[in-house]
Design brief:
about 0% strand; globular; about 90 residues; mainly alpha
Amino acid sequence: MGDGAYDSVSVYQQIIEKQPDADIVIPPTKTAVPNASDHGSRNQHVDIINEQGRMTWQQKAQYGLWALVELVELAMLRYKTILTRS
């Protein structure tokens, strides 16, 4: 999972090269359109967003889990920063 900044063909290619069975969950940009050169899951994401809306896509892709993980990581960073101050 990642944020929309990672929505590029090169990122999808690098992920597939390292993890061919990966379930990639990166939100397409607002102007994204399905493209034959793109990864199949990206095209599916774009289709769902165009047909059912971005919120439905987030629910189906469980994109909210990514946001939760980010919050936990931020909390741990803050905690470690407080504990390691001299």
